Amino acid sequence: MTMGQQGNTTTPLDVALIGCGKMAVHHAKAIKAHGAGRIVALADPSGDRSKLDGLVSKDTPFFTSAADLLKSIKPTVVHIATPPATHADLAMLCLEHGAHVYVEKPFTLRLAEVDAVLEAARKAGRSVCAGHQLLYEAPARALTASLPLIGRVVHVESYFSFKTVRKSNDGRSLMSPIDQLLDILPHPVYTLLDALGGAPGTAPQLQSLYVRPEGEVHALLQAGETTGVLVVTLRGRPIDSYLRVVGTSGSLRADFVRGQLTRLAGPGTSAVGILSNPYREAMQILVGSTRGFASRILNKGKGYPGLAELIEAFYNSIRHGTPPPLSPSSIRETVRLCEQVGQRLREAKAEFETSAEADLAARARQLPPIVAEKGLVLVTGGSGMLGRAVVAELRQCGWPVRALGRRVPPPSEREAGVEYAKADLGGEFDTTVLSGVETIVHCAAETAGGKEAHERNSVLATRNLLRSAAKASIQRFIHISSLAVLKTSKEMGGPLDEQTPVDAGNLGRGPYVWGKAESEREVVEQGPVLGLKVKVIRPGPLVDFSDYEPPGRLGRELGPIYIAVGSRSNRINLCDVGMAAQVIRATVQDMDSAPAVLNLVEPIALTREELLSRWLRKRPDLRGVWLPAFVLSVASPMLILLQRIALGNKTPIDIAAAFASEQYNTALAAQVVERARVKA
């Protein structure tokens, strides 16, 4: 690849960001941290640049089209931080306009695309760089410097275990395990290839590959006489990310979670070496991890570790006309291996879903027949924790059910005998999904993000659904709200019941509670005006006692300890998801006799000690420790002050209130639950 243009080596480069999501925030921080570039333009098709407020001047030109940006502004460098499928086309567009290009990982999804981009860069005399920042993290750079200590490299292991997420970077669409795995796959791949690259022989070749569609990859590579092992998993725990290099005279382990390098130089074959190595390793982990964590805290403002350093190296190569920090061949080989893995993952997923579909059909044949006279029930959020239980309960009792979500889930995630449809209720949607519906059970709501996300996906979605239901002449609307919307028992001076006011419009309770409260108000005020018969059910904190995980109010897990907060005998009102599904089914069955509003909790609340005991039986690796509530109450003002200092404009959390138990009058809930169980 030809070098970038030489020019002034001190003036910051003009930089444009295409994509203004979460990753762009880290890019903006990194660019600002080293000062080698200045952001002169932004583009995002969503029209939202709010995530960059405070990092990029509000006067910076903003476009909804990358083409419009490049026609109006002439940046020296463009950073592409958009969904992976758009990377190749955007990189080609930027190169055509004479810009150097930094592309987030995955650089492209296909080998043909990366070849086209690299060739276009060569012809244009421009440089490209991929988002392979782990190579510029401190442990990776220390590993490279330490390679001479361990002799000839014979084996490399790259391991990456990651927590599963439900949302894509856009915060709206759901991310499947395979999509998530392919998104993070370049990190362990390029670190592995970089360590294997120094071995003699040809480029590393894939010798064997085993994948699981739940999100797991096991690969064996060969580079000359050096073997490489790649393991990427969304299931393995604890969360870990490391690169281990074994040589003829020792080993190195770069830990990307702790930010440290462990060196065990020397053959370690003597008795002294065998005995001393564990202590050498332990001391390095202790000291190195402390330094690594401290460095990450101190450098938090620079974005992801290694990102600022990689960007600075790329900018310097442009200034001085030297080769970019990542070779074209390294970028190409990373895409090549990721494409091979991705193809096998998709094949495995297709095989898995074919089997799941056959199993789904077999289970559907075992269900009771549908009673058409009962009328079609539409359940929004039908793939969520509560929604899935509701559609299963309704179908088991003979109702025809249509589950609505932002996507149609694959067969492995569906309930037998249920029709599935998709619609984005917060935007324009095809109202034919309401065709033939007699009753709506509205479970869908936003669960993450800030006010904007909840305003769109909870409040606006509810408003759109109400109006569309009225136009479709649907008269029965069951709204699933939340107990969290009520004013607190502390404010009310006693137990809460169905007449307790909703704490509407209070963003201080957090965007989720705000969105739920506003959605309920929309239903209660507008539903009757639109001619809908409305029922509101407010479940308490949802748990699944058949697959139990403790509620957030009980406490927190810290390593091998679970810290339970409060008095052992104090009770926490919860709502079992199975019980909630029964009550919702009974409400569909007999709306006339159902209460207008129901606070749905277990009639007899369990004590904190009982809830902790359940969790410790499931997790014998944990040890329970009790923290008296008064300790948090005393410390709460100081904790709020520290949050204000650390979080700036963000609203601090009242830690004591977060773990406090509300008091409820459960008389009505007990009656409704008993009636629902009798009619089951």
Notable features of this structure?
19 helices, 680 residues, globular, seven-stranded parallel β-sheet
Number of strands: 27
Q: How many angstroms does the end-to-end distance come to?
A: 70 Å
- Total of helices: 19
Task: Please give the radius of gyration in angstroms.
Answer: 28 Å
Q: Kindly state the percentage of residues in helix.
A: 25-40%
Q: State the shape.
A: globular
- The overall pLDDT average reads 92
Strand arrangement in the largest pleated sheet: 8-9-10-7-11-12-13
User: Which runs of at least 5 residues are low in confidence (pLDDT < 50)?
Assistant: 1-6
Describe the structure.
This protein is an alpha/beta fold and 680 residues long. The chain has 19 helices and 27 strands. The strands form 6 sheets. It has a 7-stranded mixed sheet with strand order 8-9-10-7-11-12-13. Strands 16-15-14-17-18-19-25 form a 7-stranded parallel sheet, with helices on both faces. It has a 6-stranded parallel sheet with strand order 3-2-1-4-5-6, with helices on both faces. Strand 12 (250-255) and strand 13 form a beta hairpin. Helix 3 (87-96) runs parallel beside helix 4 (111-124), helix 12 packs parallel to helix 14 and helix 15 (577-589) packs across helix 19 (667-678). The longest helix has 38 residues, at 328-365. Mean pLDDT is 92; it is low at 1-6.
Task: Detail the topology: elements first, then pairings.
Elements: E1 13-18, H1 22-34, E2 37-43, E3 62-63, H2 66-72, E4 77-80, H3 87-96, E5 100-103, H4 111-124, E6 128-130, H5 138-146, E7 153-161, H6 177-184, H7 186-197, E8 205-212, E9 216-223, E10 226-233, E11 240-247, E12 250-255, E13 260-265, H8 271-298, H9 307-320, H10 328-365, E14 376-380, H11 385-396, E15 401-405, E16 419-422, E17 437-442, H12 451-471, E18 476-480, H13 489-492, H14 511-529, E19 533-539, E20 542-543, E21 555-558, E22 561-565, E23 571-572, E24 575-576, H15 577-589, E25 597-600, E26 606-607, H16 608-618, E27 623-627, H17 629-647, H18 655-659, H19 667-678
Parallel strand pairs: 1-2, 1-4, 2-3, 4-5, 5-6, 7-10, 14-15, 14-17, 15-16, 17-18, 18-19, 19-25, 20-24, 22-27
Antiparallel strand pairs: 7-11, 8-9, 9-10, 11-12, 12-13, 21-22, 23-26
Helix pairs in contact: 1-9, 3-4, 4-10, 7-10, 11-15, 12-14, 15-19
